[in-house]
Design brief:
With 418 residues, this protein is an alpha/beta fold. Helix content is 45%, strand content 14%. It folds into 3 domains: 192 residues, NAD(P)-binding Rossmann-like Domain (Rossmann fold, 3-Layer(aba) Sandwich), CATH 3.40.50.720; 78 residues, N-(1-d-carboxylethyl)-l-norvaline Dehydrogenase, domain 2; 109 residues, 3-Layer(aba) Sandwich (Rossmann fold), CATH 3.40.50.720. Helix 1 links the parallel strand 1 and strand 2. The radius of gyration is 23 Å and the shape is globular. The relative contact order is 0.08.
Length: 418
């Protein structure tokens, strides 16, 4: 098939190169001309395992192209994926400006296209009711499908090729929806997983509910960890014992400094905002957020307790990204901890295998937070080492060697992995 993609960000690029690997031909549009030029040369603007290799192959085979003119993308295909960002506003709601700018551009083009044949597939995470709102205003221009993505940073390529489920939301049983359903069913035919066919609102809420539930599991096990410390119980063994129950599962039961990234914090707050808008108090979500914020404060207090009085305070933070196998520092617990330590007068050295560049940008206004090029440079002469991200490189460190380099001798495991 010929596929168009609007948005050359994380979701758009991963979707594009993976569809190209499946044999489709893809044209991806983005408003950022610098990014487009880089992608044409095979340079990916973020770190994600296997994406650069897939892009290189797709470019060589002529299965993917990147354009800076929207019409070039839209005229290429009658199936267009919308993969633009919906960042959070201060009140927790989603900023839909990028999304509606993309939709408006498609609508202008779509006026001249038979709407039963022109299909807009939304992969952006949007408030419940968005697809119906788009349909209300632009139904004469295209058919809308909701197709939320469930890609995990660090495992996105594997998740695309081996999904747990594919969710497709349509308007109803109309002829237009039937045509779109036929096209999308054909596109996903060879993916061996459950296909959930539903209405727009259900598809949109599945995405939010999934991420909010996973965030809830993380906050729950962190509360169990806090209780465990008070009753001499081992939270690792508790999580193991819980995880064998298939009703609970083993995933997301590792106690630590909490969740972060571009999805969980944003989606939990957005779901909370949606609930407020519908005059429903989603009390559980407030607790999930409160516990997550609490974990960062606990980490800071543990680090501060390691310092001697009347001495320059020095700490090493291993890991800046919100999780391993990514360069994403958005909403990272590590970054939040570093900033608070800086405010408290601590000199912090930070090392991350892939996230150093983004960490430097995030910490540029914090002069006592220095991002360095190696673990050794980070730990040399510090009082305490704090493991903030469970990179494989950190799990196999020679800690006796690290201790020799340190001034102090305290190592705090913020992820319960050592």
């Amino acid at each position: 098939m010929k596929i168009g993609i609007i948005g050359a960000g994380y979701v758009g690029i991963v979707t594009g190169v993976c569809l190209a690997e499946k044999g489709h031909t893809v044209v991806c549009y983005d408003i950022d001309s610098t990014k487009i030029r880089a992608l044409k040369k095979g340079r990916v603007p973020f770190y994600e395992p296997d994406v650069a290799d897939l892009l290189s192959v797709a470019l060589k085979k002529g299965r993917i192209d990147f354009v800076h003119a929207l019409n070039q993308c839209l005229s290429y295909s009658k199936i267009v994926f919308v993969c633009v960002g919906t960042p959070p506003r201060e009140n927790g709601s989603a900023d839909m400006s990028y999304f509606y700018k993309a939709i408006s551009g498609i609508a202008i083009f779509g006026k001249d296209v038979k709407n039963s044949e022109f299909i807009v597939v939304n992969k952006s995470t949007v408030p419940v009711g968005t697809a119906r709102d788009v349909h209300k205003h632009f139904r004469k221009c295209f058919t809308v499908v909701s197709n939320p993505e469930f890609l995990r940073e660090g495992k996105a390529v594997s998740d695309f090729f081996n999904p747990d489920r594919i969710v497709l939301g349509f308007e109803d049983q109309s002829e237009k929806s039937a045509g779109a359903r036929k096209q999308l069913t054909a596109l996903y035919e060879k993916f061996d997983c459950p296909k959930i066919i539903t209405n727009w609102e259900t598809a949109e809420l599945i995405k939010y509910a999934s991420n909010a539930y996973l965030a809830t599991k993380i906050s729950f096990i962190n509360e169990i960890a806090a209780l465990s410390e008070r009753v001499r119980a081992d939270v690792k063994t508790i999580a193991k014992g819980m995880g064998f129950d298939p009703r609970i599962g083993k995933e997301f039961l590792r106690a630590g400094i909490g969740y972060g990234g571009s999805c969980f914090p944003k989606d939990v707050r957005a779901l909370q905002s949606l609930s407020r808008g519908k005059r429903y108090s989603f009390k559980l979500l407030k607790s999930v957020i409160d516990v997550n914020n609490q974990q960062r404060k606990i980490a800071v207090e543990k680090i501060m307790s390691a310092f001697s009085k009347n001495r320059v305070k020095r700490a090493a933070i291993l890991g800046a990204t919100f999780k391993p196998d990514t360069d994403d520092v958005r909403e990272s617990a590590s970054i939040a901890i570093i900033k608070e330590l800086h405010i408290r007068g601590v000199n912090v050295r930070v090392f991350d295998p892939q996230g150093s560049l983004n960490a430097r940008r995030e910490l540029k206004r914090f002069p006592r937070a220095l991002v360095v090029g190696s673990v050794e440079d980070a730990v040399r002469g510090v009082d305490v080492v704090f493991l903030a991200t469970e990179w494989k490189e950190f799990l196999c460190l020679d800690w006796k060697k690290m201790k020799v380099l340190m001034r102090g001798d305290i190592i705090i495991d913020g992820r319960n992995v050592l």
